[in-house]
Amino acid sequence: MENADDPSSPNKNSQSDNLGWATKGRAIWASTENWLISTALGVMMALPLLEIALRRFNSGVSGSAEMLQHLVLFVAMAGGAIAARENRLLSLSTFTAFLKGPWATVARSLSASVSVFVTFAIGIGCYQFINTGGIGDEVLFFGVPVWVFMAVMPVGFALLGLRIIRFSGSSWHLRLIPVMVGIALYFFCTHSFEDVEGFVWPMIVLLILATIAGAPLYVAIGGMALIMNWGWSGYFPEERVEITIQTQSQTLYGFISNPLLVTLPLFTLAGYFLAQGDSSKRLIRLIHSIFGGVRGGAVIVTVLVCAFFTTFTGASGVTILALGGLLMPVLQSAGYGERSSIGMLTGAGSLGVLFPPCLPLILYAVVATNTKLVSLSLTDVFLGGAIPGALLVLMTIAWGVWKQPQASIVRAPLDWVEIRKAFIGALGELFLPIVALFALFSGFATPIEAASVSAFYAFLLYLVDARWVRKARIRNELPQMMSECGLLVGGVLLILGVAMGLTDYLIFAMIPDQMVDWAQTTIESKLLFLLALNGALILVGCLMDIFSAIIVIVPLIVPLGVVFGIDPIHLGIIFLANLQLGYLTPPIGMNLFLASYRFGKPMSEVIKASLPLLAVFVIGVLLITYVPFLTTWLPGLFK
User: Fold this and answer.
1) Element (H or E) spanning 556, and its range?
2) Which secondary structure element, helix H or strand E, spans residue 139, and what is its range?
3) At what angle do helices 568-582 and 546-563 cross, to 10 degrees?
4) Fewer beta carbons within 10 Å, N or C terminal of the chain?
5) For 284-294, what is each residue's pLDDT tens digit?
6) Beta-sheet strands, E only, within 18-63
7) Whole-angstrom Cα distance, residue 620 to residue 577?
8) Is the peptide bond before 587 cis (omega within 30 degrees of 0)?
9) pTM over 0.85
10) Separation of alpha carbons 412 and 585, rounded Å
């Protein structure tokens, strides 16, 4: 009789072969996804460049605008699917990190069950939306009907759901729980209740519990939109479900197809090209060679490099994680203690959010203009953020200079030979913001083309660095890096798309109008309104990532800004500056968590380290709020 535990037995060998084939299959599929999203990003970068070249011959690429918009849709869904594949979907809660044993299993099952319900509900809505008469029949380009490109939505949500199920438990028995519960929730919600309003609050409570248990952010926001539209929109029972899920899908498609959103993945791609190689080391060397011999030189290096990278990556978390290990020794070698160094890096990581062409500025212009109450150009918003951003940078540097211990100050003369070598080494990186801003403000290119030019220039820098400096294997490194960019962009776009469904419901329910009425009867002073706005936005910055906050909150505050006579550019910079402050606000500011993870320190220690810089940022935000001239002068000068 054969031993079942014998590794040489036929059963064991069969199981091993099956697992081997499954692993290989997943690896091949993952590689295919990486190459597909890399190709999509590459085409998005190349197409506007081709338009610029053909314009000299009074020609162009037929259907290029529609192609770019549908490539954004593909990147959103493919990037979200890759994030789910890597189990890196953005979540609000870190609560599950402290759970062990059965409690962790319960939390995973709860979050996965609600996530499966929301994900497949939106996916089914996408399928029904595509099959609505006349929606997908239009031919876009190359004779291909639009439904082929729209099909990425239901396929993408199907992949999201399947991967959420895969990570919901360590065995198939545990993975069956979210499948069964998700199906049960869907059929419950599709039942034709006469009095559905009574079930809304229990469903919201269930969604909140799932969010605390670790459900992805797109599930929390999209689920809230689905539940509110389902229960409180006043549809007839027989049409309630169909309208609810199709409206969510239609909103997702309409928003992600916004032409200006093409700039978001392109500028992010430029940041990833920049961060992949040794650009940070070259910039640190240059700035250190100039300022290293003066008091606070290490802080100047840290602040300027962090602001530069956050400007192009659009995410302070990327800056902290990528540059923290490089800049910590620079600060400590200049005499700063470990606590001061951690506080400086935690705060400096968010500097750059107000500088062009940072992604939150782009997104604010898009969303604010979508309210139809104001009309903003990217140029105005970019100019409006320049001086406030510089103010926060200078205040951070001033605090760092004052904080440096006197005993550690070693003044040294400038080494012009080292400066020259460092300058030549970093010349390519120094030209990147010049190229981006020239393309944006010269009229030479549209915003999309300017983003493409910036990404292509950063791509050339990457090729030189990878081929001749680092001797890297570009064929292996490039798809991995571009898929990582797609993961970030796709995750953000997915959140933004479902968040628009919640925004539409809030507008449908006349929440902005009610807020305007309340503010007019309760708040008499414009200054008092700005103070209340600051407090509310700091809280928002703690609880939400900056991208979803823009989608959900901006449509609510723009009408208030119009009523109180606040310039929409000034309102946007106030909004973003407060969210930047929220990154540092205890106990749940996002940068606090990232710094705790990056430096291996308890949250309490990171919070104490960040408090001085938090106070500096509070002063800066108050100046930005109550001195509108700082924001409005440059846009007015260039009109």
Assistant:
1) helix 546-563
2) strand 139-141
3) 140
4) N
5) 888 888 887 77
6) none
7) 9
8) yes
9) no
10) 37
